[in-house]
Amino acid sequence: MIIYDYLASPTLLKHVNKKAEMIYVGKKGGDHTLPQDGINELIVEKAKTGMTVTRLKGGDPFIFGRGGEEAEVLIKAQIPFEIVPGVTSAIAAPAYAGIPLTHRDYTATLAFITGHEDPAKDKSNIDWASLAKGIGTLVFFMGVKNLPHIKEQLLKHGMAADTPVALVRWGTTTQQVTVAGTLENIVEKVKAAGLKAPAIIVVGQVVKLREKMKWFELKPLMGKKIVVTRSREQASDLVKRLSDLGADCLECPTIEVVPPKDWTPLDSAIENLSSYDWIVFTSVNGVKFFFNRLFENGKDVRVLHHIKTAAIGPVTAQRLRDFGLNSDIIPKSFRAESIIEAFKDQDIKGRKILLPRAEEARPILPVELTEMGADVDEITTYCTIQAGENAETMITQLNEGSIDMVTFTSSSTVKNFKALLPENQDLKKLMQGVTIASIGPITTDTAKELGFDVEITADVFTIPGLCEAVEKYYLGLKT
């Protein structure tokens, strides 16, 4: 059981066991899914059923996170628990904004304060006089709405009007935005920027250091919303690389890689491996499904001792090395045509070649190898089918104009992406302002045939090559 908050990281939620039950109890700006008492009761109720319950919060549970109150309820109900400390947003957000909360040249004191105190209360629990004159750095939680009140109290109790102030919204995420000013003008600056919760407010001389220390918001893809259409299983590398460059990735896998409908042809090829001279692997998936089936048939890599191998691309070659085999041929270019060129130096006339690959693969490779005199067995080792996870969200965001880029890593991702779009909508209008990035010329050709304008085609047809091309595009280094 996962009981999670509004600010709980979606990245963490990806690790949840698929069989686990998930309940959202988020609170934001007065919109509470459950009041705190209801959350307390829910935790106890689920724990009493024998479930292992994770109460997932953003930041640290004991820093303005109501964790102490929830722990007291568990103690009263005699339910055992453990606390996993987090990194509070009061520390994380300023660090990502380039603001060190302490610095020997500026301050040796630091205070965390709730900014959510009701200004209409008869008496404040906050000692404003001590904060205004006795603490070097102040960090206010949940204080955007009450910023005018915070400013008023600090000025009223003696803090200088030119004291630096910064607000960091959605700190540590690709949506991070920072607005800086002084105590005197920060309310107007925040209003002009349209900054809203959730945000951390930092007050103190250390804010001056941001101009030379800011780093996160300088990333080349910062805040760009990029759709990743690759299969869920294979998307992680692309998502990580783009996210590391500052992109906000929306995973919308348009394809799912599945086993073939009938294993008989591959099983037969595996049983007769002694008759083959070469195996040509055109993708990581081909390697994966071939070896999985090899092992399921009770065999191991020793049955391949006499066979030469060819692999398209360094990633496919590396996956082959994971099984203890070095490729005899790794073409310079990562496409089927390059394999054909590489085989021109090989005597393959009369040689038997096994080609385990996708059901929908392009025919050029077996045709050309056959014309060179080889006996080619093209065996369906896996299939790609249409997927549509997050498709509704993606289409909504396309209509809103909030998506900056869509990435395609194969022709099948293009075809299935197009199939997910509403038939009654004009493609040009829907994709207006959206940049299309393709992993290589074959994928680009497919995209153009289907009506997409492709602005980026990677020079190196790999995930790192695609990411490099995207980065250059946003840096203005278009090729």
UniProtKB/TrEMBL annotation:
Residues 3-186 form the Tetrapyrrole methylase domain. The keyword Ribosomal protein does not apply. Its EC number is 2.1.1.107. The keyword Transferase applies. Gene3D superfamilies: 3.40.50.10090, Cobalt-precorrin-4 Transmethylase, Domain 1 (3.40.1010.10), Methyltransferase, Cobalt-precorrin-4 Transmethylase, Domain 2 (3.30.950.10). PROSITE patterns: SUMT_2 (PS00840). Pfam families: HEM4, TP_methylase. Residues 237-467 form the Tetrapyrrole biosynthesis uroporphyrinogen III synthase domain. SUPFAM superfamilies: HemD-like (SSF69618), Tetrapyrrole methylase (SSF53790). Pathway: Cofactor biosynthesis; adenosylcobalamin biosynthesis; precorrin-2 from uroporphyrinogen III: step 1/1; Porphyrin-containing compound metabolism; siroheme biosynthesis; precorrin-2 from uroporphyrinogen III: step 1/1. It comes from the Bacteria. GO terms for biological process: cobalamin biosynthetic process; methylation; siroheme biosynthetic process. Keywords: Cobalamin biosynthesis, Methyltransferase, Porphyrin biosynthesis, S-adenosyl-L-methionine, Transferase. One of its GO terms (molecular function) is uroporphyrin-III C-methyltransferase activity. Belongs to the precorrin methyltransferase family. This is uroporphyrinogen-III C-methyltransferase. It comes from Desulfonema limicola. The gene is hemD.
